[in-house]
Amino acid sequence: MGHLKAQPILSHPLRFQSKLQTHQLRESQIGAYFSCKQRQQGTARKTGVCHAGPGGNGNVVEIESPEAFQAALEAAGDKVVVLDIATKTCGPCMMVYPKFVALSEEYEDVVFLKIFGDLTTETRKMMKEWGVSAVPMFNYYRNKELIGSVKGAKIEAITEELLKHRALA
């Protein structure tokens, strides 16, 4: 046989001019599958907040510390805040998340947060303090006060609770 030329396994029609462009494409492809720490290469460790961007996270902000959670509630003021409490290995959490993202895009006047309770010792402690016994769990806040909660991955119940509290705003 003649000499075979090696062919790339994956071919991309675009040639990247910089590492930044390569990073942006990679981030958009893997967005929801990796933690904020991996996506932002350490930024989350400093702030405890991940501003979810490309990758199918809509307007959902990932929270990674009690301080970041309190800061997000402060910043929300009198807006309704919906907190998605999940774990990395929870199947129903993963199934409902794209619908939660869709809600965040539809209701831009509401603040959408997400926390992985099994991410760090701090997040585990937060789940314990909140009395979370099953995930997913969705807590609703206004003016830093807990105003409602939904357990389970039923998007209809999650949406109904959101609309109820949004109407009272």
TrEMBL record:
UniProt cross-references to InterPro entries, sorted A to Z: Thioredoxin-like_sf, Thioredoxin_domain
Domain Thioredoxin positions: 25-164
Domain of life: Eukaryota
Alphabetically ordered keywords of this record: Disulfide bond
Name assigned to this protein: Thioredoxin domain-containing protein
